[in-house]
Design brief:
The complex is a heterodimer of chains A (418) and B (448). With 418 residues, chain A is α/β, with parallel strands linked by helices. Chain A folds into 2 domains: 315 residues, Aldolase class I (TIM Barrel), CATH 3.20.20; 86 residues, Alpha-Beta Plaits. Chain A has 12 helices and 18 strands. In chain A, the strands form 5 sheets. Chain A has an 8-stranded parallel β-barrel with strand order 3-4-7-8-9-10-13-14, surrounded by 8 helices. A 4-stranded antiparallel β-sheet of chain A has the order 5-6-12-11, with no helix packed on it. In chain A, strands 1-2 form a two-stranded antiparallel ribbon. Chain B has 448 residues and is an alpha/beta fold. Chain B has 3 domains: 97 residues, Alpha-helical ferredoxin (Fumarate Reductase Iron-sulfur Protein, Chain B, domain 2), CATH 1.10.1060.10; 165 residues, FAD/NAD(P)-binding domain (3-Layer(bba) Sandwich), CATH 3.50.50; 138 residues, FAD/NAD(P)-binding domain (3-Layer(bba) Sandwich). Chain B is built from 17 helices and 15 strands. In chain B, α4 runs antiparallel to α5, α4 packs across α8 and α5 packs across α8. Chain B is globular, with a radius of gyration of 24 Å. Chain B starts with a helix and ends with a helix. The relative contact order of chain B is 0.13. The chains are: A alpha/beta (418), B alpha/beta (448). Chains A and B meet through α10 of A and α2, α4 and α5 of B. The structure holds flavin-adenine dinucleotide, flavin mononucleotide and iron/sulfur cluster. Flavin mononucleotide (FMN) binds next to β4 and β6 of chain A.
Chain lengths: 418, 448
C-alpha cells in the first residue's frame, strides 16, 4: 500500500524513529498515557517535569483564546510540575524505557538548588532515560527559586546546567522561557554550564481574557486568578522566531534544538525543522485533539518529502535560515500590484473597505457591477487586499513595478499561503 | 442549453480552504459513529481528520484503501441514512458534509494523479467476475490487490452497471465512473465487454479456460411493471430503459412536454429530474403511499422539488389512455391509508393527467442465475451468504444487488470486497490442500 518515507533523525546523538515527541506536560505524565502515545506513533516522550518539590495545583486551571468559528487557538494553563511522588515517576520512566527500548525518553527535571539538580540528574539517568531536559521555564511556579524566574537569570541557568552535568553523562537540554527579549543569552549560558542542546519554547506569560462580571482574568479560582503560561497555535510565530534566532547565533552554531510551541499539523512541524529544530515537541494540540494527530503528521510529512524528493529530514534542518535576513537587507526598490480576478470575485467589497480604511484608498469601487478596480497611482503594493480577500486566489500579487532607482529583474513574492 | 444542464454536476465542489473549514466543523469524536455507519469501512473519521490537519493525501489514502469506488460513493451514497445520520454534530446544528469532503479528496486524487493502490504481479489463480457493476468492480479490485488474475465479464458495452446506465449525470458524471473503472483496469484487471455469461459463453467454458473461482455480481436488470390497461402503448416505458437510453445519449434524448413517473424511490426521482433536465415542461410523480414513506433520499427529493417536479402522493395508477397506439393521458385514483398496510380507494379523487411519456419506476427484477448453477429464492435472488457471498457451490460466490435485492452502491462495494476475501480464503485453502497432497505423495514416493 502507501509507501512511508523514513522519518528518522538523530538528535543529540540519539537516534529517533521520527522527530515527533510529546513535550513535558500532562500529556506524558504516567505510564499508560505514554504507552498509548508511543503506540500511536510518537517517536519519543519528554516526561512531565519531576522534582522533589511537589506542587499543590488549583482548580480550574485552564483557559483558552477563541476565535469565531474555529476551535481554540491559544491555551492558558496554571499548572506546575508533576504532582506525583518522585519515586513513582522514576519507576514509570524506567518501565517505559524497559518496555519501549527503541523509543526515546527525555526526562524533564526541576530542582530548587544545585544539590537537587545534581541528585535529580543522577536519579533520572538511572531510569535509563536517553536525554535530560532542565525545566528553567515554567512561568507559574508558586516558589520563585524555581521556574522561569530561573530561566531569566543567566547566572542561575549556567550554575544549574553545570550541576546537572555533574550528575549525568547523558545529553542535557536546557528548556528556555520566552518571557525574555533575547533567548540566545540564556542559551549560551546553559551551553557554557554544560548543556548539550536547547529546548524552546515553554509557555508565554499571559492574560487570555478578563471576566466582565468578576473583574479578574480567567480561569477564576474562587474569585482570583493569575498571570500564567500561554501555548498552542497562537504562540507558533513567537516560537519560530526564538528558534530561528538561536539557530542563527554564531556562538550557538551546531547546538541541537528541540522546537515546540503551537505544532498542530505536519506543516507546522516542517516549519520548525526549516528554522533549525531537529526535534519537535507537542502538548496543546494533543490536549485538544489527542495523540492520534501524530498519524497525519507522519503521513503528511512523508508525502511532502516524497513530493520534494527529500530522503532524510536532517537535510532540511535550518534550510530556511539563510533566507531569513535582517530588515535592512530586504530589497526595497519595487512594489507589487494586486491583480483582481473578476471571474472569481464574489463582490463582497472587503478589499475596498480595507484599502480605504486601513490602506491607501487605491481601490475604486464599481457599485453597479460590485467589482474592485485598482488605481495604480495610489497603490503602494502593501498586499492588505489579498490578505483580507475571503476567496481563494481571487486577489493575487501581479507583476512588480520598479521604482525610478530600481533595477528591473525577476521578482518572486508570496504573501499568502493557502 | 438543455444538454448542458443535464450533463453538469448539480452540487458545487469545495475549494481547499472551504474543505478545511468544513472539516474543522467535525468534532473529531472518540469512537466515531460515522465510521461505524459506512458499510464499506471508508472511515470518514480518519479522512476528515486528515483534511482538517492539512493532509489531503492522507485522506485520499484512507478512502482509496477502503473503497475502490470512493469517488462515485462520494456522490451517490445516501449519507442522510448512513454516515451523516450518525454524525454527532447533528446534536449541535447539522451533520458534517461527509460526502462533499470525500468528493474533495477524490477530486484532488484525480487532479494530482496520485496513485495509492498498486497490485502485486498477478501470480495467483484465475478468477472470473460476472458483471461490472459496483459489486463486481469491488470484488475484482480486491482480488487483483491480492495477486489474482482477474477477468470481468460484462454483457453491456460499457462497464459500471447502474453507475453507467442508471444514475443520472447531475449526481454522477460519467467521467467519474470511467475514472474509477480505469483505476480497476490499472490494477491489472481485464475486462471482456459485450459478453453475457450463460449466453455468449458458458460457465463450463470458462472453467475449461482455467478460471478457478467465480463471483456472480449480475444485479437486477429487469424492471417491474404495473398491472393496468394500456401498458403496450408506445410512450410507456420503464425507468431502467429510460435512464439507460438517456445517459449514453449525453442529453440528446428527446422527451415530450408532459411526463408521468410512477414510483417513490431514488430511481423515480432520477427519472423525473432527468425528464425535466431534458426539456419536459411538466413532470408529475405519482406515488401510492405518503410523502413521508417515500424511500427516496432527502437531497434527491429536494432536488426534484427545486426543478419544479410535482409530486402526487397516495394515488394509485388506474389506466394509461392512448390514441393511435401512443400514450395520451394517465389515470389514477386517490387512496386513503388506514394503516401502513390497508388503504381504500377514494373515487372522488380521480385524476387524469396529460402524458406523452409514462415511466414505471417501481423496482428492478433479478437476473436469472441458473447459468451459474445457483438456486434462487422466491424473489429470484441468488441464494448466497449475505455477508461473504458463499453459495452452495464451493467455487461460486455472489454479491451485490443479486443477493440483497437492491440496496445501494456502497453496500454493493462492501459485499464485493467481502466476497474477494472469501474467494481468497477458498482458493488459499485449495492451494494449501494441493500442496499437502503433493507433500504426502512425495513422502510416499520417498518411502517407496
Ligand atoms: C436508476 C438507479 C439509480 C440509483 N441510484 C442510487 C444512488 O443514488 N445511490 C446508491 O447508493 N444506489 C443507487 N442505486 C442502486 C445501485 O445502483 C445498485 O445497488 C448497485 O449498482 C448494485 O451494484 P451491482 O454490482 O450489484 O449490480 P449492477 O450495478 O446492476 O451491475 C450488474 C452488472 O452485471 C451485468 N450483467 C448482468 N448479467 C450478466 C451476465 N450474465 N453476464 C455478464 N454481465 C452481466 C449488467 O449488465 C451490469 O453491468 C440506483 C439504482 C438505479 C437503478
Ligand atoms: C497544561 C500544561 C502543563 C505544562 N507543564 C509543563 C511542565 O511540567 N514542564 C515543562 O517543561 N513544560 C510544561 N508545559 C509547557 C509545554 O511543554 C510546552 O513547552 C508549551 O506548552 C508549548 O508547546 P505547545 O504549544 O505544543 O503546547 C506545560 C504546558 C501545558 C499546556
Ligand atoms: S478533563 Fe478530566 S480531569 Fe479535567 S475536569 Fe474534565 S473530567 Fe476532570
Amino acid at each position: 500500500m502507501a509507501k512511508r518515507k523514513d522519518l528518522s533523525i538523530e538528535f543529540c546523538g540519539v537516534k529517533c524513529e521520527n522527530p515527533f515527541f510529546l513535550s513535558s506536560s500532562p500529556v506524558g505524565s504516567n505510564y499508560d498515557m505514554c504507552k498509548k502515545a508511543l503506540e500511536s506513533g510518537w517517536g519519543g516522550i519528554c516526561y512531565k517535569t519531576v522534582g522533589y518539590w511537589i506542587p499543590q495545583e488549583c482548580s480550574p486551571r485552564f483557559d483558552a483564546t477563541r476565535k469565531e468559528g474555529t476551535p481554540f487557538v491559544g491555551f492558558k494553563n496554571m499548572e506546575m510540575i508533576s504532582d506525583k511522588p518522585t519515586e513513582k515517576n522514576l519507576e514509570m520512566m524506567a518501565k517505559l524505557k524497559r518496555d519501549y527500548p527503541d523509543k526515546v525518553l527525555i526526562a524533564s527535571i526541576m530542582g530548587e538548588n544545585e544539590e537537587e539538580w545534581t541528585k535529580l540528574a543522577k536519579a533520572v539517568t538511572e531510569t535509563g532515560a536517553d536525554i535530560i531536559e532542565c525545566n528553567f521555564s515554567c512561568p507559574q511556579m508558586t516558589t520563585h527559586s524555581m521556574g522561569s524566574d530561573v530561566g531569566t537569570n543567566t547566572e542561575l541557568v549556567e550554575k544549574y546546567s553545570a550541576a546537572v552535568r555533574r550528575g549525568t553523562h547523558l545529553p542535557v537540554l536546557a528548556k528556555m522561557t520566552p518571557n525574555i527579549t533575547t533567548m540566545e543569552i540564556s542559551a549560551r549560558a546553559a551551553i557554557k554550564g554544560g548543556a548539550t542542546g536547547i529546548a524552546a519554547i515553554n509557555t508565554i506569560k499571559s492574560i487570555t481574557e478578563v471576566d466582565l462580571d468578576n473583574f479578574t482574568c480567567l480561569p477564576i479560582v474562587n474569585g482570583k486568578s493569575s498571570i500564567s503560561g500561554y501555548s498552542g497555535k497562537a504562540v507558533k510565530p513567537v516560537a519560530l522566531r526564538f528558534i530561528a534566532q538561536m539557530a542563527k547565533d554564531q556562538q550557538l552554531k551546531g547546538i541541537p534544538i528541540s522546537g515546540m510551541g503551537g505544532i498542530e499539523t505536519w506543516e507546522d512541524a516542517v516549519e520548525f525543522l526549516l528554522v533549525g529544530a531537529s526535534n519537535l515537541q507537542v502538548t496543546t494540540s494533543i490536549m485538544q485533539y489527542g495523540y492520534r494527530i501524530v498519524e497525519d503528521m507522519i503521513s503528511g510529512m512523508s508525502y511532502w518529502m516524497e513530493e520534494k524528493g527529500i530522503n532524510q529530514l536532517s537535510d532540511i534542518v535550518g534550510a530556511a535560515l539563510p533566507n531569513i535576513v535582517p530588515a535592512e537587507n530586504i530589497e526595497r526598490d519595487f512594489k507589487v500590484y494586486p491583480k483582481y480576478d473578476h471571474e472569481k470575485c464574489i463582490g463582497c467589497g472587503r478589499c475596498y473597505i480595507s484599502c480605504y480604511d486601513g490602506g491607501h484608498q487605491a481601490i475604486d469601487w464599481d457599485g453597479d457591477k460590485r467589482k474592485p478596480m485598482l488605481n495604480e497611482e495610489k497603490c503602494v503594493g502593501c498586499g492588505l487586499c489579498w490578505i483580507v480577500c475571503p476567496v481563494e486566489k481571487c486577489v493575487t500579487p501581479d507583476k512588480p513595478k520598479f521604482h525610478s532607482f530600481g533595477t528591473p529583474r525577476d521578482i518572486n513574492v508570496i504573501a499568502k499561503r493557502l | 442549453m438543455k444538454g448542458k444542464d443535464y450533463l453538469s454536476e448539480a452540487k458545487k465542489a469545495y475549494s481547499p480552504l472551504n474543505a478545511i473549514e468544513e472539516a474543522a466543523r467535525c468534532l473529531l469524536c472518540h469512537d466515531a459513529p460515522c465510521s461505524k455507519a459506512c458499510p464499506a469501512g471508508t472511515n470518514p473519521e480518519k479522512f476528515i481528520r486528515s483534511i482538517r490537519f492539512r493532509n489531503v493525501k492522507g485522506a485520499v489514502e484512507t478512502i482509496r484503501t477502503a473503497n475502490i469506488l470512493g469517488a462515485a460513493c462520494a456522490r451517490v451514497c445516501p449519507y442522510d441514512k448512513l454516515c451523516e445520520e450518525a454524525c454527532s454534530r447533528t446534536g449541535i446544528d447539522r451533520p458534517i458534509d461527509i460526502g462533499g469532503l470525500q468528493r474533495y479528496a477524490m477530486d484532488f486524487e484525480r487532479a494530482s494523479g496520485m496513485k495509492v493502490l498498486e497490485a502485486p504481479a498477478a501470480a495467483l489463480e484465475k478468477v472470473a467476475v460476472i458483471g461490472s457493476g459496483p459489486a463486481g468492480l469491488a470484488a475484482a479490485a480486491g482480488l487483483a490487490l491480492k495477486g489474482y488474475k482477474v477477468t470481468v465479464f460484462e454483457a453491456r458495452e460499457q462497464a459500471g452497471g447502474w453507475l453507467t446506465y442508471g444514475i443520472v449525470p447531475a449526481r454522477l458524471p460519467q467521467d467519474v465512473v470511467d475514472y474509477e473503472v480505469q483505476y480497476v483496469k490499472d490494477l491489472g484487471v481485464e475486462f471482456r465487454m459485450n459478453t453475457r455469461v450463460g449466453k455468449d459463453v458458458t460457465l463450463a467454458a470458462l472453467e475449461a479456460e482455467g478460471f478457478e473461482a467465480f463471483c456472480v455480481t449480475v444485479g437486477l436488470q429487469g424492471s417491474a411493471t404495473l398491472d393496468i390497461p394500456g401498458l403496450a402503448l408506445s410512450g410507456v416505458t420503464t425507468a431502467a430503459a429510460f435512464l439507460a437510453e438517456a445517459k449514453p445519449s449525453c442529453g440528446a434524448l428527446q422527451v415530450p412536454s408532459d411526463v408521468v413517473v410512477v414510483g417513490g424511490g431514488d430511481v423515480a426521482m432520477d427519472c423525473a429530474t432527468t425528464a425535466k433536465e431534458l426539456g419536459a415542461k411538466k413532470v408529475t410523480i405519482v406515488y401510492r403511499r405518503t410523502v413521508e414513506e417515500m424511500p427516496a433520499n432527502k437531497a434527491e427529493l429536494e432536488y426534484a422539488n427545486k426543478l419544479g417536479v410535482s409530486i402526487l402522493p397516495s394515488f394509485k395508477p388506474v389506466e394509461v389512455i392512448g390514441e393511435n397506439g401512443a400514450v395520451k393521458a394517465f389515470k389514477a385514483v386517490g387512496l386513503d391509508w388506514l394503516d401502513r398496510n390497508t388503504s381504500v380507494e377514494v373515487p372522488e379523487s380521480s385524476i387524469q393527467l396529460k402524458a406523452g411519456l409514462v415511466i414505471q419506476a417501481i423496482g428492478q427484477t433479478a437476473e436469472d442465475v441458473s447459468f451459474a448453477g445457483l438456486g434462487a429464492n422466491s424473489k429470484g435472488l441468488a441464494a448466497a451468504d449475505a455477508e461473504t457471498g458463499k453459495t452452495s457451490i464451493g467455487n461460486v460466490f455472489a454479491a451485490g444487488d443479486i443477493v440483497n435485492g437492491g440496496k445501494t452502491v456502497v453496500e454493493a462495494v462492501a459485499r464485493g470486497k467481502a466476497s474477494a476475501e472469501a474467494i481468497d480464503a477458498y482458493l488459499s485453502s485449495v492451494r494449501e490442500s494441493k500442496a499437502t497432497d503433493k507433500e504426502v505423495a512425495a513422502q510416499k514416493e520417498g518411502v517407496r
